[in-house]
Write a structure and sequence with these properties.
Distance between the termini: 45 Å
Radius of gyration: 26 Å
Number of strands: 5
Length: about 475
């Protein structure tokens, strides 16, 4: 009986309706979304019922009420988003709203697409980590995908029903059901890791001969060239290891992909291939830049890219809530940013005119990034002093900041495909993204310890009697 119930529930799940959005409308007033990535992804998401999807972004402030802003925008620009009586959101509508400056995310829906407040929070939570890392497009996709899973979810797919069914079915059915679910999830994750590995492995294999030619002409007398060559000396051995891993994962049967140890193997393959893919790019850039080859300017731009990204992200960091944007350490960061932008132009001109060597240009870039790391550490202390109410909270925030900087959270670790990122360890440079990650986690941890969830459901003073289903929260 227990196993029959499990089979019945799984059968219902397989038969659930799945339809793409009726339409996808993007109002990116903040200018932060990559439409070429966003639109195909959203159009491919399957809902349980035909649903119109709207994405709205704007640059607000930390103290803004996102609910009120979305309603104002709808009334002014898109009255078709609102029901005919003006009191609710239109039927068949789902809105995902984002304020990247004020750091708010919101979800709104027609009465026939309404979900509970807890489920609205679930949708926002699905996007939150990506949004905290300023991955606006990916965060939006993740939020809409979770909404599609929850909106008009069939009764036999609801969490409450499944929990009740497992309890009713008994311990044996629970074990069997959990086993089936874990195997399915693991199998899917293994496939994704293998696909990730295959893409990188194909890139490395195709460029293998060119990589060897590039390495052969990197000047060993260069301080940076010699250290990149140290990495290259193990390149072929690591490529052979990746080849062996590729053979092993592709020999796995579909069923064995659901075993945890094989997911670990697939991830090992993907990581090995991805690191090789990044390293062969660094080898090419080292050859081009250090030898002033025809593509040296492109290679130099790639070395500058992480630093430029940090400088571009500073203002957004400093204007967010609790970021102490009017402090002395914030002023020091802004001054450094302005000077660095001028320095980058000067370094590039000096390189072009051969007034400095490529090694000297990399030295200056290293010194600037090290200086930025120090200024961010100083500002982190300012932020912690401003937000923490006691020593325990301050210590909790310092711990989260340190964990982010040192890469203790392996899910956030990434290899920087640059000459400096290859020569120096990942924790050498305290980046703006790392600061944001540690700050977000620290504030979240302290907020949780204080007992607040930050969810807002009202539409503000201008909302009047409007009572459409929706809520927003900070990230």
């Amino acid at each position: 009986m227990a196993f029959a119930l499990v089979a019945l529930l799984l059968g219902f799940t397989a038969a659930a309706a799945a339809v793409p959005p009726v339409s996808v409308q993007v109002e990116d007033r903040a200018g932060v979304l990559d439409r070429s990535t966003l639109l195909p992804a959203l159009e491919g998401i399957e809902f349980h019922e035909p649903t119109r999807v709207v994405v709205y972004t704007y640059n607000g402030r930390a103290e803004d009420n996102l609910n009120e802003e979305v309603l104002r925008f709808a009334r002014t620009e898109h009255p078709e988003w609102i029901s005919s009586d003006g009191q609710k959101w239109a039927d068949g509508l789902f809105i995902f709203a984002l304020d990247p400056v004020g750091r708010h995310v919101g979800t709104y829906m027609g009465e026939d697409r309404k979900v509970s407040l807890e489920q609205r929070s679930d949708i926002q939570d699905a996007a939150r980590d990506l949004l905290r890392d300023a991955q606006w497009t990916d965060g939006t996709i993740a939020g809409v995908r979770r909404a599609a899973e929850l909106i008009n979810q069939p009764w036999y797919q609801s969490t409450a029903l499944l929990v009740t069914a497992w309890v009713t079915a008994g311990t044996a059915a629970l074990g069997a059901g959990a086993w089936l679910i874990v195997r399915a999830v693991t199998r899917s994750a293994s496939r994704k890791e293998i696909e990730r590995g295959d893409q990188s492995y194909a890139n490395v294999s195709m460029d293998l001969e060119v990589t060897e030619l590039n390495a052969a002409t990197i000047p060993a007398s260069s301080r940076y060239g010699s250290q990149v060559l140290e990495k290259h000396r193990t390149f072929l051995n690591r490529y052979n290891l990746a080849s062996g891993l590729a053979n092993r994962v592709h020999a796995l049967s579909n069923g064995s992909l659901g075993i945890r140890r094989n997911l670990k193997l697939a991830r090992e393959y993907a990581d090995a291939a991805s690191e090789l893919d990044a390293l062969d790019d660094v080898i090419a850039d080292s050859n081009a830049l250090l030898n002033r080859g025809s593509t040296w300017q492109t290679a130099w731009d790639r070395q500058l890219a992480p630093f430029r990204s940090d400088l571009a992200g500073l203002e957004q960091l400093l204007t967010r809530r609790h970021a102490q944007g009017d402090s002395a350490t914030a002023a020091a960061l802004r001054s450094f940013r302005d000077q660095s932008l001028r320095d980058i132009e000067r370094w590039t001109a000096d390189l072009a005119e051969e007034r400095i060597s490529p090694e000297k240009a990399l030295d200056r870039l290293y010194e600037a990034r090290t200086r930025l790391a120090g200024l961010l550490e100083n500002h982190a202390a300012t932020v912690i002093d401003g937000y923490a109410k006691n020593g325990r909270e301050a210590e909790l925030m310092r711990k989260e900041m340190a964990a982010a900087q040192e890469g203790l959270d392996h899910k956030r670790r990434s290899y920087e495909p640059s000459i400096l990122g290859t020569v120096y360890p990942s924790y050498q440079f305290f980046s703006v993204a790392t600061f944001n990650s540690g700050f977000n986690t620290g504030v979240s941890s302290v907020s949780s310890a204080r007992g607040g969830d930050g969810s807002t459901t009202g539409y503000g003073s201008s909302g009047g009697s409007f009572s459409g289903s929706g809520s927003s929260s900070s990230f």
